[in-house]
Amino acid sequence: MSIHILTSNEKKRILESLSERFGISEIPQLLLRFGKGKIRGFSGSLSRNEISRLVRNVRVELIGLYILREESDAYRISHDGLFVFKNAEKNVVDIPDEQAEKWLKGQDIETNLEEGWVLLKNKNDLIGCGKVKNGKILNFVPKERRVF
Amino acid sequence: MIEPKPLFIERMRKLMPDKNDFAKFNEIIHVSPINSIRCNTLKISPEELRKRLEEKGWKIEQPWLDCPEAMVVTSNLEPGELGRAREHMTGLYYIQELSSMLPLLALKPSPGEIVLDLFAAPGSKTTQMSALMKNEGTIIANDNDLARIKVLASNLERCGCMNAVVTRHDAVILCEKLLKLGIRFDKILLDVPCSGEGTTRSSPKTFIMWNVKMIEKLGRMQRKFISSAVPLLKEGGELVYSTCTYSPEENEKNADFIIKEMGLEIREIKLPLKCRQGITEWRGESFSEEVTKACRIYPQDNNTEGFFVSKFKKAGK
User: Fold this and answer.
1) Does B35 touch chain A (CB under 8 A)?
2) Percentage of residues in chain B having pLDDT higher than 90
3) What confidence score (pLDDT) does residue A35 get?
4) Average pLDDT, stretch A33-62?
5) Mean pLDDT over the full length of chain B
6) By the CB < 8 Å criterion, does B139 face chain A?
7) Looking at A37, A66, A88, which one is the last position of a domain?
8) What percentage of chain A carries pLDDT values higher than 90?
9) pLDDT tens-place string over residues A48-89
């Protein structure tokens, strides 16, 4: 698997996109791209050089947490990465328990919101990042995280 | 009910010469373990989690004053309810046996340290480590099996662990590679593959697989892991050696090996439950008096599974 440590310019572009859509003002972690489009955040103490050296010499399967996915039109926040962005301020939609239950089961939910990416909040929990399209919020909860 | 083999019983009687004590042991090993969970402090505080779970109607106890993350769910739950709950799926808690939390309570990793978890899957202790380190510092979490690594990765993701590097190697080979790279650790957890005698409450099939030759073989293998890992410790660094088994061949014999052959100093450990000290003699073999500082955890003492925990320090600093 190819692992690329994002440069400060690449990270800046991601932050600009997240800031514009969700009002996210910082990503303190080191960002790494794994394979096609999966971006992981590493909060550990290893430097870029130390990580590169490790990856060259040891079979590294993963580093840090999968937090973002490069979609064609935006950066989607992954289900497990939501807690990293709990200070998001824009396009955060509060949904009632009934809809939250549907969402966590992996179902799309009806909406009259404008098209685009939104974060879903239920009570105090960020529970999802979805895409509003054709009157629905499209669900991205991975199968292994669905609540039945 | 799966019955243990006669030789297992004979060995356990030797470890527990008191008849009443053995009777209590022999009774509890056939009883399913209690439902215990660990609050994932990377995502929620123990107070908040307890409140949330109680609002669902669950009865929660926190058995250890100094470790409020450890919780016991005392209400009757449906089968699988603990694992299906939203709080579990979103990583607010980890289902973990109380005794399995002990190695990390002994190791006490701190934010900023570099820690090696040589046998990390399925991740109960790695996620606990990450929480204790507040996602700071670095964990090298290794396992040799891809299927087990997938489970480890899933648990690390669910719990929001961001300071781990997951590697896939045979433990001995990884240690050689890290040694060559000059990477040294503040702390090492050697929670080694073992015969699992302490897990029979949750996994009674261990009784079927159990045999004494396997124990001897595992003991030799564990000493190989120890010999490979110890050189990776920094001066003044600490190592916890733990198993979920009772056999002295995998416990005190290896603690004795760490003291005498590896030159580490064994340390006293304070754990929040009843522990018995390590033994100094087993089947004609004597061990250093120092191994009494190791902790044996028996199921009848605390209503947990069985465990063995020992802690060592490398000279310096």
Assistant:
1) no
2) 98
3) 83
4) 95
5) 97
6) yes
7) A88
8) 90
9) 999 999 999 999 999 999 999 999 999 999 999 999 999 999
- Shared domain for B197 and B83, answered yes or no, is no
Q: What's the pLDDT score for residue A1? A: 67
Chain B residue numbers touching A58 (CB-CB < 8 A) = 167, 169, 174, 177-178, 181
**pLDDT score recorded for residue A148:** 82
Probe site for chain A from B116, B150, B163 (most A CB atoms < 10 A) = B163
Q: Which residues of chain B have pLDDT under 70?
A: 317
Partner residue facing B166 (CB), from A29, A62, A125: A62
Q: How many structural domains does chain A have?
A: 2
Task: Check whether residue B65 and residue B134 sit in a common domain.
Answer: no
> Domain of B73?
34-96
Residues in chain A: 148
Tell me: ipTM over 0.90.
Answer: yes
B139: closest chain A residue by CA: A44
Record: contact A65-B156, CB cut-off 8 A: yes
B90 at interface of A, judged by CB pairs closer than 8 A: yes
B303 interface with A at CB cutoff 8 Å: no
Same domain flag for B195 and B82: no
Minimal CA separation from A32 to chain B, in Å: 12
CB B317 within 8 A of CB B290: no
